[in-house]
Amino acid sequence: MINKDEVKNILISRTDRLGDVILTLPLIPAAKRIFSNARLSFLGREYVKKLIHDYEGIDEFISIDSEDISGSFSKKLKLIRNKKFDLVINVKPEFDLALLFYLSGIKYRIGTGYRWYSFLYNYKVYEHRKVSDKHESEYNLNLLGNFFPDTENKKIFSFRYSGEDKNSFREKMLKDNLHPLENYIIIHPGSSGSAMDLPAYRFSEVIGLLLKKYPDQKIVLTGLNNERELIARIIKNIGNESKGRIIDLSGKLDLRELMILIDNSKLFISNSTGPIHIAGALNKNIIGFYPNEETMSSTRWKPLSDNCVIINPSQSNNMESIDPEKILSSAEKYL
Question: Is the pTM of this model over 0.90?
């Protein structure tokens, strides 16, 4: 049994992708509620630090791949050991991390019970995530709820940014012909291989339909630097009749800037990928494309917004079978 009174210093570890990290964030207020006087640190990858380093409830963000400890198990061990954590919730199953927390001498170590190295945890949760019969955020909250039945199953998010952040963002956007107070729809066509994607030509068709039906809206395309070619191809297939209303921001935004962009948008349209979960956490209007594949389905990976339409392919997992007119009719709900 975990003695709440002994827990003064907590570590939550989620060291994989953006969407996974965002769907882990509800653990923070849940843990703070149970361990009200405890300090809480979050272990994640450097690239998500910009987004959540000052997230409400996180007292310290620790980068697992920062320059000073990257590639060195001994340096990581020294760092974690010196932090003197009382409890760790290891959300992403990984042997190196399980061993790291065991050797660090953390008294309460929570993790999955279904890995060969699960003996390194002394508080185990027996759930097979590959079954995908729950939402990812529920699996994450269950890591705490299995030992504290009064854990609230609430998907609470507390993203924030300063006036200085917003002013800096506004100045940057004005150079790209976008004012944050304008009406705009975000299209995020890539997924970095995390899901089955709506094809590029379908995005071109959807953008053409939206521009024609909603002349007061601009279309903003976002993506990583390695997705610029994809986005250029999508824009090329639309034609030149909408010049000035399509803005390509691929490779131009860090995660905090992307959050501000999403927060001020009218609608976010995307495949199943990390940024759709930023939109979900901000409770934005969303249209998401999800395959029928069990492990990639919306049952487990849908964005946690109250204002969300999920569209699945009509033919098995053939994303080409998603009808652009269906996407347009779904957009009418929000525009």
Answer: yes
